[in-house]
Design goal:
The longest helix is centred in the first third of the chain and has 17 residues. It is built from three helices and four strands, in the order βαβαβαβ. The protein is an alpha+beta fold. The protein has a four-stranded antiparallel β-sheet with strand order 2-3-1-4. Helices cover 28% and strands 26% of the residues.
Length: 120
Amino acid sequence: MHIAAFVIPVPEAQRAAYLVWARDSAALLRRLGCQEVVEAWEDHIPEGSRTDFRKAVAAEPGERIVLMWQIWPSRAVMEAAEAAIAEDPRGSDPAAVPFDQRRLILGTFAPILTMGRDGA
């Protein structure tokens, strides 16, 4: 298992457009081998004294935070999917993405502990 995680500042006025974009993206990722995609819209984000989700992405007034993660069977499958997306001539027009991609945070992770969905 390999996990990709994102913190994304999304203009609140773009929530519906973001959801359409997220559904389309998730469908593509699924076809490329992703096992799970979760998109979570900000519910409660406390302000930190040094750092927090908003500070991390330089959120602007009117933006909400989306926490998104993808579960992949392996890093190799994820990297193959990324390569396929990068080479696809139908690639997403950056202007059509309903958030500022320059301020999102991305990281990939190898699990050290899992509990839950598989019954463990």
